[in-house]
Amino acid sequence: MRKTSLRALGLAGALAVGGATVLVGGNPAAAAPTTIQILGFNDFHGRLESPGNTADDKPIGGAAQMAGMIKQLRGENPNTLLVAAGDNIGASPFVSAIQQDAPTLDFLNAIDLDASSVGNHEFDRGFADLTGRVTDRAEFEYLGANVYKGDAPALPESFTRTIDGVKIGVVGVVTEETPTLVSPDGVAGLTFKDPVTEANRVAAKLKAEGAAVVVLLIHEGGPTGGSTAANCAAIANPSTVFGRIVTNTSKDVNAIISAHTHQQYNCSYPVPGLSHSRPVMQTGNYGSALDKLSVTVDGGAVTAVAAELLPIVGYPQDPEIAALVAAAKTEADKLGLNELGRITADIKRATNAAGEEDRGAESVLGNFIADVQLARTKDTGRGGAQIALMNPGGLRADLLFGADNGVVTYAEAFAVQPFANDVVTQTFTGAQIKTALEQQWQPAGASRPILHLGISKGFKYTYNPDAAAGNRIVTMTYNGQPLSLTGTYRVTTNTFLAQGGDNFTVLAQGTNRTTTGDNDLTMLVDYFEANSPITADTVFRSSVAGTGGPGEPSPSPSGSGSASPSASASASASASAGPNPPGNGGGLPTTGVAITSYVIGGLLLIALGVAALVASRRRRVQAAG
């Protein structure tokens, strides 16, 4: 039975607020204007605990504070609907994920969430899990009007609720990219149709059935944050995926609550046929803010919509939810106490200039995880892998040395790889591996333009970022030798990539697939237990062509610089050693060039005497410094 503890106040107040006279069937007669409050959020991702503090050290979000804020806002206007735009679960912190997000679903039930669109992460464990375990526990409606199985919708399309005589309809849709963002096997047999077409179809149906207010929950969003005029104009650019959604959604929709891109904005746009500007909003992520829509309904029609983004800061905690979170944390702590091993220094994801995660850049952590998976699968009986690849989106936290002398626990390892994907090894040609590297530059309309794969030690490549699509990879080497485009290689990935996830479609075309039965998390756990203390390799394995980066072969005789079987093997092997590590003291040179200079120096000693030797030594010491 659905919980009503936090909603009871709203239902009781709805009988007295707004001045409506409600007849049998819920149709208002001679109703005065009514203000409906719609609260929304997106991309909660199981953040039961606060994800951080403000500059003045006040906690942001957290389930207990969020519940307290919702309770306060419901008290101010009991005519309240609470909705979400997907990714409530999945990619969650350890406290929720180790318990398969059951505590998060319990939290959403306790705050009386009315409805949510599905997000791509609701499909992380597959459609059967979503429509079984997840929806069985959820006491709210999960909506996906554009998710089809055959010719029929696979999920509920809409939700309706009548508040103070006003019928409100909610439509939910999810990004069309979902099949590339989750394990394809988990959504086999499903079709993710155009969200605008399906949203407009369902919205028209809701209007025809008497809904005065229709809200669209869409798990898709604008690429940048900010509510300035310039950014709102960019969000509505009809040449972009989300811009087409903003501009092509019909007048039957009164407001759009968006998600997926983890941005925060509050924009409004005029819509022909609507008596008000239509808000398009997103709260960012992790329960840091709430959408608040104040919808005025007069005579059965919407006359005004006011939109606000409210930070979840400075509100009292709800004691019921605080107890729920405390219990979840206690249980998670029990499961995560085991020490796996130690690290000697931070092992981190890539970041941009602002210190934010950058999935478009090479990272020490991405390469380290690729090394872990290669180590587990390189034996002949375990796959015979030569190369391993890791997608950056599968890395959800850093491994930090911290104050406990580099101790890494199960909980910390889980935070890095929470998806527990199986790991497989397949055979690919060198040409297919090159295609996989080319596909790091994502297709037009993808949420991120570049996804930089982690690559295992021994495999290196150079690239030209300014070249045309499909022609950016310049050279590839394996153990110092040029990679043959016609040769075959054994490559390990997680099943997400092996099924073409993140638009790496070529990785679904491998042959002779084998698996060890391990998933990525168990491989990481076993690696820590066998190899601690661990020092990750910090030398990057890709570089811009022509910069002399690690592993760059000499150009081919034609001067094109492209990798081919005829490229200089000796030059590749020499370059594979990479630069001297920092702090090596600048001792005597050991490269082939320096050794040659010693021979020349000896000849000069015989020919020219001691004076020439002194000059030669001086030059060598300057070069070494």
From TrEMBL:
Region: Disordered, residue numbers: 541-585
GO biological process assignments: nucleotide catabolic process
Entry GO CC: outer membrane-bounded periplasmic space
Signal peptide: 1-31
Annotated GO MF terms: 5'-nucleotidase activity; nucleotide binding; UDP-sugar diphosphatase activity
Keywords: Hydrolase, Membrane, Nucleotide-binding, Signal, Transmembrane, Transmembrane helix
Pfam families, A to Z: 5_nucleotid_C (PF02872), Metallophos (PF00149)
Transmembrane segments: 595-615
Domain 5'-Nucleotidase C-terminal: 350-508
Domain Calcineurin-like phosphoesterase: 37-263
Entry keyword Ribonucleoprotein: no
Low complexity: compositionally biased ranges: 557-578
Recorded family membership: Belongs to the 5'-nucleotidase family.
Protein name per the record: 5'-nucleotidase
Organism ancestry: Bacteria, Bacillati, Actinomycetota, Actinomycetes, Micromonosporales
